[in-house]
Every structure is written in C-alpha cells, then in structure tokens.
Task: inverse folding
C-alpha cells in the first residue's frame, strides 16, 4: 500500500471511478473535486470522501491509490450506491394497520435508503406503538429483493435501477398492551393526589 504524509503534495495522473451504477462518473469526479493533472495533498482526499458522502447516494466511499510513479499517482474513487426503495411491507401488525404505519414513516417510492434509515424507522414505529400503549413492541427491519426477475428488455439504466431496488420488510411483534393498574404519589405536600391525577388525565387507570 502506498503511503503519503499529510503535507505531501502529489499530482493526480489518472482518476478512475468504480462501483457506480446510476451515478455518473462525471458527477462523482466533479463532486469529489479530484481531477487529472491536479496537484493535491492528503486533506483533499478526506474532503472528497466527505463531499460524496453528503450526497446521500452512497453507503461506502473509498479512494484507492492504484499506482505511484515519479510524476504522481493514479487513483480510483470506489463507491457503493445506496439501495432504491421499492415497496414497504409489514408483517405481524394486528392492532395498527399498514396505512397507519406508512403515514408515520412517510416513505416514498424511489427514495434512496440511506444507512441510518432503517434504525430511525424502527425507533419511529416503536414510539408510535408506545403512544397506543404497546410499550413492549418488538420491531425488526430488513432489506429484501423485490419479487420478479430483472427485465432484460429494459434499457441499461432501467436494469441498473431495478438491480439497486430493495423492498423494506418490517417484522413486528406487538406483544400485550401495557396497562397501568394504579398510580401512587409520594412526597406531594402542596398538591393532593386527586389534583395530580387530573394533570395525568390522559393516563387511564384500570380499576
């Protein structure tokens, strides 16, 4: 592996792009700001990765030095594109309907599925269930391949898009609804239990 120090300036003799499917090489090079015959230093590599990452189109970005000569370096910008959303499926939900869950998440067809999306979606659904009293709901999210084979009759771009498309499957175990049997107050000297219960009027006590 070629090592260069942080202050060393080098000339880029060649900039290749690998791993892109829908994102164009021109756009990737332009966003990265790494151009052939340009003099750069190591900090420019870090900035290039950050710029590409901020696009939200990639789940992995790496810059690899392929070859070193006396005149400079040949590099490859290697990317892995984020999947494209096809359909969202829900399995195991009985108390809350698919439409209610869909409205909460606000997914749309064709959006990029960024790395943090699944974790954030699980949190949203758990909070949504908790509002309805299902504090013990268990939810998992996985990416699955859509049904149907890739259509060879489509254009190259459409086939690439179809190959990137993933469905999201939420597997839900709602568990029992949590009910509060009794609320006890301690240390309340200024306010009575009755007055405090009125403040908590949205919390129903099971009698």
Result:
């Amino acid at each position: 592996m070629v090592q260069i120090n942080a202050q060393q300036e080098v000339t880029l003799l060649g900039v290749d792009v690998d791993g892109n499917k829908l994102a164009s090489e021109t756009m990737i090079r332009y966003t990265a700001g790494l151009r052939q015959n340009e003099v750069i230093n190591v900090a420019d590599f870090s900035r290039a990765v950050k710029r590409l990452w901020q696009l939200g189109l990639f789940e992995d970005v790496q810059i690899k030095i392929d070859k070193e000569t006396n005149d400079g370096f040949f590099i490859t910008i290697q990317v892995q594109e984020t999947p494209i959303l096809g359909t969202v499926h829900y399995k195991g939900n009985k108390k809350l309907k698919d439409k209610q869950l869909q409205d909460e998440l606000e997914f749309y067809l064709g959006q990029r599925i960024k790395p943090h999306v699944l974790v954030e979606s699980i949190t949203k659904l758990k909070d949504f269930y908790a509002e309805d009293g299902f504090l013990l709901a268990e939810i998992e999210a996985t990416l699955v391949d859509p049904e149907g084979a890739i259509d060879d009759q489509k254009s190259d771009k459409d086939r690439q898009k179809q190959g990137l498309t993933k469905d999201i499957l939420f597997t839900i175990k709602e568990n029992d609804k949590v009910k509060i049997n009794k609320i006890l107050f301690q240390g309340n000297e200024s306010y009575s239990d009755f007055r405090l219960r009125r403040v908590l009027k949205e919390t129903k006590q099971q009698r």
